[in-house]
Amino acid sequence: IRLAARCGDTSLIPALLGTLGDEDWAIRAAAVRALARMGDKSVAPELRKLASDPSSAVRQEVERALEMWSE
Q1: Residue in 49, 53, 40, 50 with CA at minimum distance from that of residue 14
Q2: 20: closest CA among 51, 64, 66?
Q3: Contacts 24+ apart (CB under 8 A), 60-65
Q4: Which of 42, 22, 34 is nearest to 64 (CA)?
Q5: pLDDT (tens digit, 9 = 90+) per residue, 6-38?
Q6: Which residue in 22, 39, 12, 28 sits closest to 61, CA to CA?
Q7: What letter does residue 39 receive in the DSSP assignment?
Q8: In angstroms, how far is the first alpha carbon of the chain from the final one?
Q9: Is the pTM of this model over 0.85?
Q10: Which end of the chain is more exposed for a tag (fewer CB within 10 A), N or C?
């Protein structure tokens, strides 16, 4: 997931979106972080769905992403 964020290849967005439902909170958080770094605001509705995620780490990543894009 980190490599996807670093390379910025937007063709990986569908795969990253698929990991947002992973059982592991660390995977979900990393996916949100990677999507945020890619800068494609079209994924915002999918990220907003995680605003009530059970994991505070995931919620924080979503908040950071949405704040970054609102600047």
Answers
A1: 40
A2: 51
A3: 60/29, 61/29, 61/32, 61/33, 61/36, 62/32, 64/33, 64/36, 65/32, 65/33, 65/35, 65/36
A4: 34
A5: 677 788 899 999 999 999 999 999 999 999 989
A6: 28
A7: T
A8: 25
A9: yes
A10: C
State mean pLDDT over 28-50. 94
Give the pLDDT score at 23.
97
Tell me the percentage of the chain whose pLDDT exceeds 70. 89
Q: Cβ of 61: how many Cβ atoms within 10 Å?
A: 24
Q: Do 45 and 20 contact (CB within 8 A), yes or no?
A: no
The CB density around residue 50, as the number of other CB atoms within 10 Å, is 21
